[in-house]
Design brief:
With 175 residues, this protein is of the alpha+beta class. The chain contains 4 helices and 8 strands. The longest helix is centred in the middle third of the chain and has 15 residues.
Length: 175
Amino acid sequence: MLTGKLVRLRAMEPSDAEALWRWNSDPEVMRWMDDGYPSSLAQTLARFENRERNSYGDVLLGIETLDGGRLIGLTRLRDTEPEIGNAEFDIYIGEKDCWGKGYGTDATREMCRYGFDKMRLHSIALWTVAENTSAIRVYEKVGFTQDGRQRDAFRRDGKWHDMVLMTMLEGELVG
């Protein structure tokens, strides 16, 4: 487990599937994410039970609060290749009453620290919708910089949105 100031990151358990299904079924939580097609709780449970264990190429961790151990979200380093030392970063806080309280910042910082210190990554990248300003603030706070923009790359509610590429190199993590 990885422990920050506000959160603990831990491996996901099959018992976490119901929370994930609930978050993925909430349009407000999924507002700026590619949510794919709807799935049932049974399908989500099966996916969790058949999920391969964490590995260098794909590390998925649940985000728990330190005060109470409540699962509030998840974070992931994926598409990682040791030959090039790069990974893609994902995160979301699914419990809306936990938004804006620093949990996402703390979890982002701890997951990136893990990537740089334990996995020996050189670069961590992410894509986010340009209008997702709260997420961009979190990413910049921990050391990500905006490197590029892909125009009209994400469609939501009948409108196209630009995506922003952000990266952080080893040695740039803040905090």
